[in-house]
Amino acid sequence: MKQIKVLGPGCPKCKTTYNNVLEAVKQTGIEAEVTKIEDIEEMMKYNVLTTPVLMIDEVAKVKGRIADVNEIKQLLSQ
Amino acid sequence: MFDWLQYFADWLIYSVFGISAKTHLGEALNFFVFDTLKIFVLLFVIITVMGIVNSYFPVDKVRNFLSRNKMHGLEYLFASSFGVITPFCSCSSVPLFIGFVKGGIPLGITFTYLITAPLVNEVAIAIFAGAFGFKVTALYVATGIVLGIIGGFILGKLKLEKYLSSWVQGIIANAQTEEQLQGEKLSLWQRFPTILKEAINIVKGVSIYIIIGIAIGGAMHGFLPTGFFEHYINKGQWYAVPLAVIMGVPMYSNAAGVIPVVQVLVAKGVPLGTAIAFMMGVIGLSLPEAMLLKKVMTWQLIAIYFGTIAFFMILSGYLFNIIL
Asked: Would residue A41 show up in a list of annotated catalytic residues for this protein?
């Protein structure tokens, strides 16, 4: 099971990324736990500088921009 | 430089649609088509170029560079210039702030970056160039950089660390230089598709604001007589610039939405410096940003930060009014 985390303080870009992740997970039918991290102190443990950050299994895959559904599907299939 | 776009707009409106150049409608539509296309061409080109630069200097690298090198004051110039080339979204300001102080970067330099980043970015530059030409844009970019340097320097000298939230002070105490980043070794050719895709996304994202901005601008263009605002706001009124900044701070918009409106304000008689001061207030300082910063700063520090920046925005407004 994959651990997917979306880090962002709740801006529109972060919400879009989160929704894209949900959509990608649904489309691929992969088993994944999707968490959204909005708390700034929690976020800083991951050493992020720009948001949103998309993490798959504790590795930051996309930083500072919106990842679209196809891109996330590709990342999930790796 | 944009003659070909003017030919296209003329051809489309006057020949294809057959609306006479002498009618108000023909003139307005021509203006709308030309202006929209011009701004989109500029946006796309500038965002792509910035995207390439940014791909080689992501913000992580900037942070490590600033945290490793002590440059006797030059680091302010670097921090401010990096603020220009890195894309910025106000929701990133807090993680960025923490990330910088965590890397041992002094507070003043962190502020410098935070001041310049929202004021001068790729979208602002593109729309500014479309609205006011390259000379005014160059002056604006230079002002933004200097504003960041001076503002950050002064805030740094004020020893404000004690006004940070306590958990952030803990972070500063444990600050350490970050280790070497593993740089991606990709050729420009491999990077380009991602850069282009991102550029298209940004243009798509701001396009609605630009079109609304130009539409409002177009309407004001058609209905307000030239010199309309001159009556109320002119260079002779010393309080116009401070008022413009103070009015701008509570408003929140990105550069894309506010610049086309500012362009019309200027066309209808608001002095350019006053209009730019207003614009800086709108995009550089905002209440939502203050709410976000509350997580890392006390109210006193936010007030000092906003006050200092607003003061320098007012100063640049006067400066623009004198030299333009």
From this structure: no
Instruction: State residue B298 phi and psi, 5-degree precision.
Output: -80, 165
Cα Rg of chain A, angstroms: 11
Between strands A59-63 and A2-7, the pairing is: unpaired
Active site residue A18: no
CA torsion B193→B195→B197→B198, rounded to 10°?
Answer: 160
| Angle at alpha carbon of residue B11, lines to B6 and B17, rounded to 5° | 130
B7-11 long-range CB contacts below 8 Å, 24 or more apart? B8/B33, B8/B37, B9/B33, B9/B34, B9/B37
Work out the minimum CA distance from A53 to partner chain B, whole angstroms.
10
The predicted model scores a pTM of 0.79
Beta bridge partners of A59: A56
Ordered DSSP codes for B38-67: HHHHHHHHHHHHHHHHHHHS-HHHHHHHHH
Number of Cβ within a 10 Å radius of residue B224: 15
ipTM of the complex: 0.72
Instruction: With H, G, I as helix, E, B as strand and everything else as coil, classify residue A50.
Output: coil
Write phi, then psi, for B9 (nearest 5 degrees): -60, -45
Looking at residue B221, its amino acid is: H
Using an 8 Å Cβ cutoff, are A78 and A23 in contact?
A: no
Number of H helices, E strands in chain A: 3, 4
Name the residue type at position B315.
L
Cβ of B92 and A51 within 8 Å?
yes
Per-residue model confidence as pLDDT tens digits over B156-210: 998 888 888 888 888 777 776 655 445 556 777 778 887 888 888 878 878 888 8
Which of the following is catalytic: A9, A10, A11, A19? A11
pLDDT in tens, B206-244: 888 888 877 777 677 666 666 666 666 666 677 888 888
